[in-house]
Specification:
single chain, 181 residues, Alpha-Beta Plaits, five-stranded antiparallel beta sheet, 3 helices, 17% helix, 35% strand
Length: 181
């Protein structure tokens, strides 16, 4: 008997369309992972923001990853592509579910590309989900806690409840005024 076949993307699976996937990296390895994946001819996207450095002797503008620990790759995800990515030094995992890798919607990647290319001052913000408990960090309601009821471009609806009497009141506030608890 000969050697067992080693599975690569050239075997059995039908051609998959290219999609964007989120890749979780080791701490501070985003740039290295991007370079190594590009060396394997995999298209990558690493959104960055410009910030002031915190050095004691001087201050200068530097580029840091907008989403720490994450790189996006545009690839036809089959077993061979997954193996190429996961074997890359600095990669921890390709995000997904138990059923497999889950692609990032193209519209979300394009929105982030537009933001990064727009020359705006960007900063990371905690991910807020409707139904999640949040704390108000600025404004007249600072330190109040409540439940995020809705998010919209016009404003965010926050519900503040008094559990013991089973009553609540809602208020419209700016999304930037709250953080997850």
């Amino acid at each position: 008997m000969g050697q067992p076949a080693i599975w690569t993307s050239a075997y059995a699976e039908p051609e998959q369309p290219k999609r964007w996937y989120a890749i979780y990296t080791r701490s501070r390895h985003e740039d290295v992972v991007c370079q190594r994946l590009a060396g394997k001819t995999i298209e990558t996207f690493l959104p960055k923001m410009e910030v002031w450095s915190r050095r004691l002797d001087r201050r200068q503008r530097i580029q840091l990853p907008l989403f720490r620990g994450y790189v996006f790759a545009n690839v036809a995800m089959d077993r061979g592509a997954w193996a190429d990515i996961i074997r890359t030094s600095g990669v921890v995992q390709v995000l997904g579910s138990p059923e497999g890798c889950v692609p990032v919607p193209e519209s979300q990647i394009e929105t982030v590309r537009t933001l990064v290319g727009g020359g705006l001052l960007l900063s990371p913000h905690p991910y807020l989900q409707v139904g999640r408990r949040v704390r108000v960090v600025t404004g007249p309601l600072a330190s109040c806690e409540g439940i995020l009821l809705k998010k919209s471009p016009k404003g965010t609806r926050l519900v503040i409840a008094v559990d013991i009497i089973r009553r609540a009141v809602s208020v419209e506030i700016e999304a930037g005024e709250v953080e997850p608890v």
